[in-house]
């Protein structure tokens, strides 16, 4: 799965958590979950659970703490996918 | 205190026999039962396999919650409470404003016994299966007792006191009194009040095990809940929520709101599990004192009470309750007020009992009727030796009246009594 595909899947996952429609349409590597998509920080753990399920990977606490932007999240997903 | 008067300007209900005010009003006038057979209770080997549970469609629920909130929502008490609370707000003619600032003058006292018991069970199983991480972010807000009020106050943008009270079966009546006092003391203009109670085996199981629920009517659910009847054999568990908008009379008149009734006052106390009081039995002296102090607090005379909405659960304690009212009101068998119990129709809605029953009481005052008691054609002689049969209506009475007393009593020997008055328009 390449980066574009991962971002596309990620956009689907975060859709229910955001009301920022235009930020969601323009989602890219620089998108920040909290500042751009205005996602409630409490929901970040739910997004991580959805990602684990979608990509069939396990995300550790240290990685989870870094997943605040699309860029960081895609990198972590790629690393876990490659490791698997 | 001061001369601030407090009125009720909005009602919401989620009851086993009606989930809108219109539906509920019809049901209580007609004596329609909301008690049904519960296959899950039967499958789990409960002694009592009947219960009262509000019927709500997915479509109705989705009008009150966002798709994200619905995703992991597993708390019936929160669903009932939010529906009743938001309906009451709307019924009062109030809008949900998306202002930057909350409404500093409006708050909410919304009580419950437990919250999200099904969600709690799910979370406990996950933890025991070593899957703590899978809990996500929705467990705390659904299982904290104040969860229902956290949802309501967020949706309404309330900026005054937002708190959840809990006093067993007295919770609902107490919530109204606490909201009343908040407005009466000048600290808020409008307060939502109410209470809710979860449905299902995990909330009702403890009562079933205590053998306080009836096991004799599994084949005839609608006849199962029999307050004041000779054949009363325990209560039928129920669930749901009731909600009220309380408001200063000044505010209600200024915005030309519809006024259902006035809250004159009330009292809450405890029997301290002294004398005849125990964890589960009420101290009669405390019950009587609660009623007389409520009357005093409301500034009325005992003989002005025309209708009593009792706690009357359909256990052996019903006669004792009537005796307590009779002593507290210093009345005779002849001049005892009308008395009714909604539990015959909806069962005992535990922490929601007081609020759902108060919605019925307010409707009776506002519309001028006294709903019929059902399932007590065979009145308990212990009761008819205390008061005249005519005090216990078996059919709907259409009658305008002025003052109603509502009491609820709960485990832990706690009591609450409210005095409500018809509001005289113009």
CATH fold field value of chain A:
Non-ribosomal Peptide Synthetase Peptidyl Carrier Protein, Chain A
**Helical amount among residues of chain B, as a percent range?**
25-40%
General form of chain A: globular
CATH superfamily of chain A: ACP-like
Termini gap of chain A: 13 Å
**Main sheet characteristics of chain A:** none
Give the low-pLDDT segments of chain A. none
Helix content of chain A: 55-70%
The sequence of SSEs of chain A as H and E is: HHHHH
User: How many E-type strands of chain B?
Assistant: 14
Q: Identify low-pLDDT runs of chain B.
A: none
Strand order across the largest sheet of chain B? 5-4-6-7-1-8-14-13-9-10
- Which oligomeric state applies? heterodimer
Domain Carrier (chain A): 1-81
InterPro entries (chain A): ACP-like_sf, PP-bd_ACP
Pfam families (chain A): PP-binding
Protein name (chain A): Acyl carrier protein
Task: Describe what is shown at a glance.
Chain A: This is Acyl carrier protein. The complex is a heterodimer of chains A (84) and B (426). Helices cover 58% and strands 0% of the residues of chain A.
Account of the 3D structure:
With 84 residues, chain A is mainly α. Chain A has a single domain (3-83), classed as Orthogonal Bundle (Non-ribosomal Peptide Synthetase Peptidyl Carrier Protein, Chain A). Chain A is built from five helices and no strands. Chain A has helices at 3-14, 21-25, 44-55, 61-66, 70-83. In chain A, helix 1 packs across helix 3 (44-55) and helix 1 packs across helix 5. Helix content of chain B is 35%, strand content 18%. Chain B contains 16 helices and 14 strands. Chain B has helices at residues 21-30, 39-43, 58-61, 67-71, 76-91, 117-128, 138-143, 147-156, 171-184, 201-209, 249-254, 284-298, 318-329, 343-346, 353-367, 381-384; strands spanning 6-14, 35-37, 50-52, 106-112, 162-163, 190-197, 240-248, 261-270, 307-309, 338-340, 369-370, 397-398, 403-410, 414-422. Chain B has a ten-stranded mixed sheet with strand order 5-4-6-7-1-8-14-13-9-10, with helices on both faces. A two-stranded antiparallel ribbon of chain B has the order 2-3. The radius of gyration of chain B is 20 Å and the shape is globular. Chains A and B meet through helix 3 of A and helix 4 of B. Chain A: InterPro entries: ACP-like_sf, PP-bd_ACP. Chain A: Residues 1-81 form the Carrier domain. Chain A: Pfam families: PP-binding (PF00550). Chain A: This is Acyl carrier protein.
